[in-house]
User: Which sequence fits this backbone?
DNA sequence: AAATTGCGCTAAAAGGTTTTATTTACTAAT
DNA sequence: ATTAGTAAATAAAACCTTTTAGCGCAATTT
């Protein structure tokens, strides 16, 4: 790691022009009809001295940075964290790098981050869009920067998108609860217009309708504190004498569990949307709707890379199936 | 987000030179004796048209990228994840960006990542060094790139470092177990030469000596699968009829808990090093040694920024106290 | 014989900044 | 009247690549 060696040093050392070296290094030797002998000579020398081009200069010239921006809701949520990790290692193989930030569902922060990444000339974006980010995404598209949304999308906007089948996931979970014999099944969600939340609601409602059951829905403010959430969940579950609850996110489920500890009530049968280390360990372990994290990450990257290479034009929307992982928290109800 | 406006556009529009604009934008107006009138005129115009300099060109010229490399053991471990998040938002305020990668304790991967970040000319590093990374870190230092290590360090290398007082943390935890009346207290660690592990071992051993108790130590292979870890933990705890265990990391503790579920044995009193969402929720909740995450993050950034500004010369080593968070898993032992 | 094509390579421009060295137009001092 | 000094601004080099346009020559075609 001493003094950097430049492309001009190579040219000088071999007595040829910088252009030639550049062509060879960028795999344009054939195209530019550089002789094989020279190509080999250059390549050998480059390897010998361990030349690495200056990425900054390269980016400045080409306009490509080989960096992708990942705008995520919350990196400390294992669902997003795991997706981020998978994305990171996938793009790494392709020579791209990730630079990421969490928005915590704050639109203003999201806008600012996107602007910053844009200023830094990232080549493309993967975004979990918060409510109100529609215009910003549209602007990116108009600037011809590839954007792939995930987890949720904007129905009125033609964008690439990868996500889970939230409707089906919630529907299956709810149906499972019905089948197990539960009669008072509640649904906990967020005050949010995000599509994934709506779809989960609809899945729950549809299953309830199919089973001719009464619905109980409690929404929690997105910026509610943990204590506020716990209190309203306690009230919701106890006052309605629910015998089962479907939580629309893993952290809502965790708030529910904390509430049952704090207020000392027995948590009824429950299912959480998105898995979490906790859920496997608890006694009883918690049934979850699990999103296909690996497939989501793979598809996100694939679509984005294809876009970057200009290989697709029509927008792609991918909806992947969820899996219901049945654990102890939803044992068949014993009717008294 | 339309056509980029350049510094030359501004110069042309105002009928002055590019140099002048550059000086003013870089707060050198005073130093370069640019008149206040002109300074104001330029600043106003720049704000009006919303000019943002091209960061790539800037970096190419100055050699500074305003990007910091964060090389971390595992972003999906909440201890590291939270530190990463804190670091991210702290440096953000200072105009720096983070680009991060997880090494999963693989030296070769770590070397590769550091090389890559180096090639991308990051301005500085924060690293949780894996075993064997010593030479690489030394090379960075010789290249005059600021490096701050955390969580562990190399005793033979003069480097900046921020970490917790692992000895004291393990000592306090073990002493607590002794005080509660436990007699067969085991310690679970890793086959690793990393300093934080050694210090924790020593803390445990010292407390055992002080209490004139027999020691039980089980180490787990760093690259062991979850199943392997679970099996050896089961054997360790049951065959030795331990009545208490100190786990040297949170994920070892989680493996232990999983093992107790899988092999259906009762987990004795236990303490984990590093907190985790799970630990608060379990029944009983788990006592932990908690590292001062916020302080660690703050100090890491502070030291790195001071280095970047060339404001410190001597290396700094900061050791911050741990806190023992006593929960239900270490109730006083009832002697039979 | 003149015009075209192909080959193997290269000079120079472009990308957008920062910074060094210099110029210009003054005023003050000798 | 000349010199020295200073304030205010600038031209051009530098950072390191990629890419466009083109050169000189030989072989082929018209």
Assistant:
């Amino acid at each position: 790691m001493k003094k950097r060696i430049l492309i001009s040093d190579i040219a000088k050392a071999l007595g040829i022009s910088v252009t030639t070296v550049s062509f060879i290094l960028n795999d344009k030797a054939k195209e530019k009809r550089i002789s094989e002998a020279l190509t080999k000579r250059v390549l050998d020398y480059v390897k010998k001295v361990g030349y690495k081009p200056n990425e900054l200069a390269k980016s400045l010239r080409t306009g490509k940075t080989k960096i992708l921006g990942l705008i995520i809701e919350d990196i400390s949520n294992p669902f997003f964290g795991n997706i981020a990790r998978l994305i990171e290692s996938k793009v790494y193989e392709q020579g791209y790098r990730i630079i990421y930030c969490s928005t915590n569902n704050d639109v203003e922060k999201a806008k600012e981050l996107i602007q910053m990444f844009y200023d830094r000339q990232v080549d493309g974006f993967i975004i979990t869009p918060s409510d109100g980010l529609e215009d910003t995404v549209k602007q990116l598209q108009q600037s011809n920067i590839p954007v792939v949304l995930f987890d949720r999308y904007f129905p009125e906007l033609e964008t690439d998108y990868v996500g889970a089948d939230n409707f089906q996931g919630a529907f299956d979970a709810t149906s499972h609860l019905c089948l197990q014999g539960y009669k008072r099944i509640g649904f906990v969600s967020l005050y949010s217009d995000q599509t994934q939340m709506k779809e989960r609601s609809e899945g729950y409602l549809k299953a309830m309708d199919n089973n001719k059951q009464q619905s109980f829905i409690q929404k929690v403010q997105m910026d509610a504190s943990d204590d506020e959430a716990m209190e309203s969940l306690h009230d919701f579950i106890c006052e309605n004498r629910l015998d089962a609850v479907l939580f629309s996110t893993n952290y809502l489920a965790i708030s529910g569990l904390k509430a049952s500890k704090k207020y000392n009530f027995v948590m009824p049968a429950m299912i959480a949307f998105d898995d979490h280390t906790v859920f496997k360990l608890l006694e009883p372990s918690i049934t979850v709707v699990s999103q296909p994290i690996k497939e989501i990450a793979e598809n996100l990257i694939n679509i984005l890379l294809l876009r970057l290479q200009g290989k697709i034009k029509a927008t792609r929307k991918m909806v992947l199936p969820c899996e219901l992982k049945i654990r102890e928290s939803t044992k068949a109800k014993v009717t008294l």
